[in-house]
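FORM 7B: Structural annotation worksheet

SECTION A. Query
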Amino acid sequence: MQEEALLEHQSGEGFICFTSQQEAIISGAEEYVLQTSPVKGLFDYWKSLPADQGLPLKSALDPLGMPPRVLPYLFLCELTFVPEFSVYFRLQGTFLSEVLGQNFTGKYLDETTFGKDASRVIGHYYRVATNRVPCVTQERISSGRGVSMIMEVIHLPLADEKGEPRYIIGALARIQDAVVPETPPENFVSRYWDIEMFSEIPASFKL
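SECTION B. Predicted structure
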C-alpha cells in the first residue's frame, strides 16, 4: 500500500487524553447507529476488502479506493505480540495532526504519547486484535490545544499474509455539535460496543 499517499503533512506534539471507558457491551437486542460520515465510510470500505480467516487483509488496502472523506480521519497501527504486545502508529490523517494537534506517526502507544492512560488503551487494542472483531466507541478526547470533543472512534482489525491480526485501521471523527471548550460535560460517559454482539456480523450493524 502507498501509505505515504494517506499523509499530507503532520504537525504538533502532545497527548490525547481519554476518559475512563465503561466497557458496557450492548446486548444483541440493542443497536448502535454510526454517527459520523468518516467512520461510516471506513467501516463500509473495510467490509468490502478481501479477507483471510474472517479478517480483511491489510495488503488489500488502497488509499485510492477509500472514500476521500475518510482519509483525514484515518489511522493505521501495526501490532507486535512478542516479546510483549505493542502498538506502533504507521500513519495518521491530517485531522489528528491539524485539529487535535497530535502527531503519532512513527511512535509507539506508551506513556510518552498517551500519558497515564497508555496501559488501558493498549489493553483496548489487544482486545480488538485477539477477539478478531471491530469495535466502536464514543469518547471525550482532549486535544493538545485545550479543547475537549465528543468523538466517535472505530477500530477495525486487519490480517497479515498469514491471516493473523497484525494491524488495526481506524477512524476518529467529532460528533457534530459536541465540542466543549475547556471543561467537559459532567454527565458524559464513554461507551464501548463490540460489533460481534449483533445477531449478524457485521450486516446488522446499522449505518
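SECTION C. Observations
Confidence is low (pLDDT under 50) at residues 1-29, 196-207. Residues 118-131 form the longest helix (14 residues).

SECTION D. Sign-off
Analyst initials: ____
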